[in-house]
Structures
1.
Amino acid sequence: MDIRQRLVMAQTVEQFRATLLSAAKELAVDQNQWRERKASIHLSQAKEQIFGPNRWYPFRGLQEELKRRSKQYISDFTDGIFGHRTIPKLFSTHRRTISTPHPQVVFLYFACLLPAIAFGVLNDDNTEGKINVKKIIFAQAIGGIFFSLFGGQPMIILLTTVPLAIYIKVIFKISTELGYDFYAMYACVGLFCSMFLVLYAATEMCSLMKMATRSAEEMFSLFMAIAFTVESLRAVARSFSRNYYCVPTAGANVTNIYTNLTEAATVCTNKRDTSILYVLLMLGTLWLGLFLYNFRKTPYLTRSRREWLADYALPASVMIMTFAGSYGFSSVEKDKFDMREDIPLFSIAPILTLPWTGYFVCLLLGFSLSFLFFIDQNITSAIVNNSQNKLKKGSSQNLDLFVVAILNMFLSLMGLPWMHGALPHSPLHLRALADVEERVSQGHVHEVIMNVRETRLASLLAHIMILASAFWLLPYPLRWIPTSVLHGLFLYMALTSLNGNEMFERLLLLITEQQAYPPTHYIRKVPQRKVHLFTACQLLQLIILCAFGFSPYPFIEMVFPIVCFFFLPIRFFFY
């Protein structure tokens, strides 16, 4: 009998009290039994839970996924042509409703090209041009076309990311300190990493991601947002140290303060207006992007036009601030990315020039890097293959990881940047090809995905356009985009990635008045002390991850992917 019903049927206060005590004892017994059952899981039971009940053998998962996806390969293309309102979803710019979103090819083109340019600037600064904008744009086009043709899940979009940029910087620092050729070391690390990824795909290691929970995903997402912000602030610091502050030359013989100032004025050529404009354009890009992104919440214009402005907030803010910087401040010198014409676009890395100790260092670096690929790729795959998205063709984590490994072997040998499944581009790509309905539940309006067109055409066409842009839009007009605007794009990506991040929301609760707490489900059901304790545990893990990820010592910084990986089972075993 339900506890509430027994309480209603109580005739006296004593019966009511006895019922409460009995219910409390029953609940305590159930909780103890649950803890005992969880603690008594044997290794064989855990293996069956993770890898399934059937007999396991090497390449089992890869073989099953390849067999299943090969039967649907033709439909992956035809589903992008035939069907109700399929062509409008790919190309049309006519009036749309909530169930028929923006033209996905154009949206995906801008969503991949602009971050590729921004990451190119970041890698150019970190590697002194060894990995530059031109290399990243070509790598984005080649990788996107390759994965759209041979990948298992066509909804996944590949990009290079901030953690990969951090790791490339680590490799550059270590190669410089040890005196190794950067491209040779970079290629060896990439090949060892790909070798481990093939091993993970062959042994169905992707099944271990069942231990990962939303807690780990939110922490890693917050780490990426912090990385975006840190890299943008470092770029501002470099601009000010190069242009705003003036240090007199060492040969200047000065005797007093007046002479010092006079020498500084004559020897140094300050460009303080360049640094100030750098900050203005970066913050202006951030403000304009957020304004357009949140425009869907305003009552202005029609719903379809508000959605259109919000969807194209990223390219619109970049174009507007580029125009404002180029024409509104034409007399001020601006920082622009270098084309690095002296560095060849494609060249096979001299991997045989490394000493035997260098291969051992590359093996360690590749092993650590493989954890980063494993985590990012599988988190992206898990979000895309969520049951709420109602995909019909099944998941293919092992096949996707295998294809990413083969792709990055080629990119490593050619000295091109690595890439893997990226957020939030992959779920946005899926949502743009979906039919969405609005439903009301308990007084709240929420959107439900009804059907998704699982096609390879949108990604394939968008990356063909990026490849064409690499030939026709470089160096101009893409080089007109100031690097300050691109770092403003980083800040925009950092702040917009915080939407829906429960860890960030719970961190804000620590400085929020208790009466102003939002009526979320965990606030209503979980005691406040436990909510804050759980948040503190997550914050401690995030601080440890940032301590490794932003360490000034490259041999410490290189292990941050392993630290992140070992955070995955903490929520599974201890919370």
Note: Strands lie at 158-159, 420-421, 434-441, 444-452.
2.
Amino acid sequence: MTTDYLILGGGLSGCVLATRLKEYNPSCSVTVIEAGEDEHDNPIISEASNFGRCHGTNLEYSYDTVPQTWMNGRLVHTVGGKVLSGSSAINYGMWCRGAEEDYKQWSRLVNDTRWSYDGLLPFFRKTETDHAPQTTDEPSSSTSSSSGGTHDQEKGSGREHHKHHHGFDGPIHTTASARTYPLSQIMRDAFLEGSGLSMTSDPNSGKPIGIAPYTENWRDGKRQPAARAYGMKGVEIFLNSTVKRIILEGNVAKGAELQDGRIFKANREVIVCCGAVRTPQILMLSGIGPSDELSKHGISMKIELPEVGKNLHDHGSLFMCYKIKNPEKNLAHGSKNWNDEPTYKLGLAQDLIVTASAPVDSLKEALKKDGCQDTDSHPLLHRGHIEILPTYSSRHFPQIPLDGTAISLGVVNLLPTSTGTVRLSSTNPSDHPLIDPNYYSTHVDRAIMREGVRLLLRVIDSPSGQKIFDKECTPTDCPPLTSKSTNEEIDERVRKCGWSIFHMAGSAAMGKVVDTDLRVIGAKNLRVVDASILPCSIGSHYQALMYAVAEQAAVIISSPLPCITETVGAKTEYTMK
């Protein structure tokens, strides 16, 4: 079969990209190859009340890392979507862009402002139908930007600020703190008292630091998977189809061979959208990657790219579970009368997201230990390193009865400096590659997690926190963590109990494997569009980010057909050159 654009991977990025390429290039054919099935009508996927039940099913890739040296030699579990729409069909639905400063670092690393916050902002807006009305006149929580530029438009009313940052006619609908829970107000009070942070009304305006409404993209309790939200009109989709290799003639991508022997040819481009684990695997199986890794498996080298599979990073986390006081008052998920409130079935039992900076002195000390010479001007300083996610449920802890007597809180390292690798385990594309995120290997990562845990403990010890929390449900052979716990005790808890929150990225990094037009360096007619291109960690839950990346990629690939034209407010229009 022959097509114009051949997209390998029908996940979030692949579905968005395919839809827009067909829209911008209606005379061209667009074909998507997806390893999974179309399960959009499966209630495990579609219903918010079933979130998390995808785990352990054929709807996802279920991975274990190689033994992690800095996590007591544990195999850390992680997952990825193996279904049309990819992880947008199985994730927890959080909608979180991250900070302007994170994108500024990305754009500095690759010397291209298209990948700054302002450069991606038109595409963030194009993706979404924001939950807040355009007519709001509430004061903006942020009226200026350290970078200046287009953020000068923020000055003035909350209405103009909101219109500048958000879209109101995109395919993905968002909500924020759409449900009020029995512990909502006192939990806010506990974070205000214990964290030193203030409330911020819009964490998705590039300035997330503070205590903010939890934004999600469940719509009336239903999931919005990428393929269904975008429609994929006119796109040909092949399901249950595993890619074996990209077909190269010299350094020119001509198509792909599937594991069952089928051949797909591409007149224009082959675009890999298989995610941070599978994309480097496919590149290496095709002869693109580090020479030593290819020769180890007897693969003929077509293009030597030493950085393929390197720079892998992930957001590590530590979740803690606490028994609550007065559980008979129906305060948490699992209690006897919890389901009497119908709105609780429309999303996760969460309504807050907290973002904080690690103390500068702590970071500087850690940076020095990691070998950094100039710590005073390091770009990691003064950013949002820590995220805390309170959940009115113990569902993260299957060993604890889901009876409404306990809730959980997660501490997330948003800006890890530990990096690892994806390597081949064999030449069989169905075999999982060897995943080594190298979690918790830097002094910086340990400092960030310690500070995040200590911040959470201050919240628990606050006057309002003491009205909520009774005692920690400690893991086996672990003492409770308290304000008196040492760094070593916190480190040991993370090593024993730390998790991935499934945000792997960076393994085909921009500037090392792809250029800023997403073209694979040294190849022709070959690009990568997925989270593997991120050259550094972004303090985001990558769903919202990857929608914007795929939207921008479609414009880059289609150029010079569409161009961005800024219009009044949040709307972005495409016109033909």
Note: The chain has 14 helices and 26 strands.
